[in-house]
Amino acid sequence: MKANTVGMMNELRIAAPIGVFDSGIGGLSVLKQVRRLLPAESLIYVADTGHLPYGSKHPDYVIQRSLAISRFLVEQGVKAIVVACNTATAAAIAELRRQFALPVIGVEPGLKPGTDLSRGGTIGVLATAGTLGSKKFRRLVSAHGQQYRVIVQPCHGWVELVESGALDGSAARERVASLVTPLLQQGADTLVLGCTHYPFLEPLIRELAGPDVAIVDTGPAIARELQRRLAVSGLLRDGRGRASAYFWASGEQLPSERQMARLWQAGCQWQRLPDGVQ
Ligand code: DGL
């Protein structure tokens, strides 16, 4: 092949978008960090709102949904996939990496950074039942949590709070307090946000925890890891210009302008996923 043809093909590969997905709009907490660090990268975001929440579903179901969405993203020509969901990462990342020959970046609860921040040695991990019950999480605790007291807290209902836009107000405050207060009473000095929906509840968690408790959100680390993986694969698109972002969802009702104004930015368009991916 001629050198200029190879050069053009490389440019096309570099210009390809990055695919990001979650069970819902929680993964926007990761997407925001990707946009902040890599503003020139085009983005395609998929919210699997028709099948939410993942946290209470069987891992096989989450694997099947993750494969269907990833196939769709690959058909859209993405150069990398970010699984912006701890639950889907725990269930499906090994299978995704087996089936797709492109960088697949996942998220896991930030226990390791939590151990670096903890002064008293008690760390509370807030996540879905699916994440906390996974083999991957057990391995994470045995790799990094042995010298620490790790208290896990499945946060039923938090995903739904974020999806419904209830980020403050008395219902959200009560629901968050009922699960965070017991961790604080048990002496947790570090709280790990092990679900990508929870950073949107961080103001409420901070209000309860006060200034001395460390709160770990892995979003910025995921964006850095994506940058590193793209760079080593020769796929990083540098630059400052703000690239396009497309949003797809599987649920009947698409996320509203009002929700998006708080979680991402106003004025973005959502489309319904094609039937085969519903
Ligand atoms: N954002 C997903 C996570 O990080 C939420 C999972 C769910 O839908 O229950 O785990």
Structure in words:
- This protein is an alpha/beta fold.
- The chain folds into two domains: 3-107 and 220-277, Rossmann fold (3-Layer(aba) Sandwich), CATH 3.40.50; 111-217, 3-Layer(aba) Sandwich (Rossmann fold).
- Helix content is 45%, strand content 16%.
- The strands form two sheets. The protein has a six-stranded parallel beta sheet with strand order 4-3-1-2-9-10, with helices on both faces.
- D-glutamic acid (DGL) binds at residues 22-24, 26, 52-55, 85-87, 128, 131, 159, 195-197.
Question: Could you outline the blueprint of secondary structure elements for this entry?
Answer:
Layout: H1 3-15, E1 18-22, H2 28-37, E2 43-47, H3 59-75, E3 80-83, H4 86-99, E4 104-105, H5 111-117, E5 122-127, H6 129-132, H7 135-144, E6 149-154, H8 158-163, H9 170-185, E7 190-193, H10 202-209, E8 214-217, H11 219-232, E9 245-249, H12 257-263, E10 270-272
Parallel strand pairs: 1-2, 1-3, 2-9, 3-4, 5-6, 5-7, 7-8, 9-10
Bound molecules: D-glutamic acid (DGL).
